[in-house]
Amino acid sequence: MGGINRNKLQHNVAVTLLAGMVLTTCGILSACQSEDGFRTGTKTSDAYVNPQKVEEVAEEDLKAVNFIYDYDKLTYDLIWSDEFDYEGLPEVTKWNYDTGGSGWGNNELQYYTSDKNAYVTEGNLVIEARKEEWEGKEFTSARLVSRDKGDWLYGKIEVRAKLPAGLGTWPAIWMLPTDWEYGSWPASGEIDIMEHVGYNQNTVHASIHTQSYYHKINTQKTATRIVEGVSEDFHVYSIEWLPDKILAFIDGEQYFTFEPSKITKSPTFKEWPFDKKMHLLMNIAVGGNWGGAKGIDENIYPVQMLVDYVRVYQSKEINELTN
User: Is 158 among the catalytic positions?
Assistant: First the structure.
């Protein structure tokens, strides 16, 4: 009898194994391909964008693009102001109030009143937060709004103010849309001219919120600046709101820029809802998701935000460009 040819047997086994591997691998690769034919692993990557399927944004849906102007040559005229050169309640022709104790979407602890926590004296608007029971809440405060009495599209907004201090305080100077034409928050936008939380004394924040960029999905656009003595001295908090960008300043020094066309090629209202009228808000919140993140010192109350003036300017060059 003849013997076994071991070299030939090993060769046949190797070929058989290799063929099986090829078939198995091909089966796996076939299963791993997306329906578009792009192999990305065990599934199609959520980050992958097929360039053949990217929809072009219609020209009429583009926002904050194709505005041509010389920023350095813009001129501004005062169109609305409150110098607080009177005594008593804030001027009724200029200010409304948001009232209530709903928590305001941030689990805030104060009840906003309409006639007891805001007054004008000695040349300043005083917004005062107090430790007192009111309508089931343990704190009261005020939230002044210019809605329906001061609503603007583009411009320079300046507020000279001195901020409260203390753990749990959350003063803000900010803007919201008047008509909410793009939908509920954050789709229609928010501009934060100044925010400060007491547990981070002297750190001032400027931010914007839109459907694409907001804090609950950690995409908000913001900047901070350390300003010594924000609770001892007055400082000017301002923005320049232009048709394609928003700039924020403290005492005339710029520290924040939001320009959506530098973030995405084709911005829509999701990135730039700021082509509709907005109004100003000024308030002190107590506690809340941010203001109360490190606790509340109940022994500091009452606390005050003093506002020396509010001034709103508009540029005739921008008005001519956008009207």
Answer: no
